Amino acid sequence: MRRPFWLAAFFVAVCHLIAASVYLWRFPAWRAPDEGAHFAYIVHLAQTRSLPVFEGMGRGVTYEAHQPPLYYLTALPFVASLLEDKAHHQTALYLLRFFSTLWGLAVVLGAMGLAWMLHADPQTRLPATLLAGLFAALLPMHLLVCASVGNDAAAGATATATLLWLCLLLQRPSSEQRQTLTAALAAGVLWRFLAGEEQQPHLLAPRFARFMPDASQFTHPFADKKATCLSTSPPSHDEVRDFVGHLLGSIFADSGLVAVAQHRPLR
Fold first, then answer.
1. Of the candidates 110, 52, 45, 117, which has an alpha carbon nearest to the alpha carbon of residue 75?
2. Which residues pair with residue 227 across a beta bridge?
3. CA within 13 Å, CB half, 83
4. Is the pTM of this model over 0.70?
């Protein structure tokens, strides 16, 4: 990364923290979706030093007990001393909201990193990166997520970090990295298959084929589609950009946000 990127990142980070802080203070306490349940998760950690057990809606410590513990464990040190007295719980709430803002900042910086990495034109790379960062930083729904106690911002940050890692892996593939990518793809397909959700993983699998280790052909086990590995050389900027566009399109189609009938390269 060059100095212009970090200057742009600093500017966008300041914009994000200011906007998120306005949401944080102006949004009424305990009114964000499921905020009380997420807060109860952290209180349980502070009081028992153990993870809560999910017992169903309306039962047990919190109906958010099934959530992964990363967000709650990292948030606990910031408010542990305030959770001993209920009179300080609202202060702890606002501190946790600010903590969520930091996770949201990771999403914003990750979006800028992706834009910088995938934009091939040096003349317009910085404006594109700045635009991507400001879009992520000032998106109202993202600011609302950052202004509440909950693990959504942390989930976004880990997803962004995973996408960054994937792009780096595809741009500089080594033998070990290709094996890691193969294992990650297989684990993802297997998890989706075992979860029983309707998927179309064959839309993604052929795109991974040229990065598979020592393979000349790749056939997806759930579809009658075959892709031929034409090259084992590192992918170009355009190829990585096309792959990410296809990946995002498949994710959006799977979530029901948009209907994607056919992948079109991002050019």
1. 45
2. 218
3. 20
4. no
For tokens 């995938």, name the residue. Answer: 118
pLDDT digits (tens, 9 = 90+) for 56-82: 787 778 889 888 899 999 999 999 989
The tokens for 251 are 């994710």
Per residue in 111-121, pLDDT (tens digit) is 999 999 888 78
**What does the chain look like in DSSP terms, one character per residue?**
--HHHHHHHHHHHHHHHHHHHHHHHHSPTT-STTHHHHHHHHHHHHHHSS------TTSSS-TTTTS-SHHHHHHHHHHGGGTTSGGGHHHHHHHHHHHHHHHHHHHHHHHHHHHHHH---HHHHHHHHHHHHHHHHH-HHHHHHHTSSSSHHHHHHHHHHHHHHHHHHHHS--HHHHHHHHHHHHHHHHHHHHHT----GGGTHHHHGGGSTT-SEEE-TTSS-EEE----SPPPHHHHHHHHHHHHHHHHHHHTSS--SS-----
Residue type, 105: L
Torsion over CA: 234, 235, 236, 240 (sign): negative
Domain spans in the chain, listed from the N-terminal domain onward: 1-171
- As a whole number of angstroms, the distance between CA 108 and CA 145 comes to 13
Report how far residue 188's alpha carbon sits from residue 182's, in angstroms, rounded to the nearest whole number: 10
* Cβ atoms of 171 and 120 closer than 8 Å: no
Phi, psi of 227 (to 5 degrees): -125, 140
Task: Give the HSE-up count for residue 227: Cα atoms under 13 Å, Cβ half-sphere.
Answer: 19
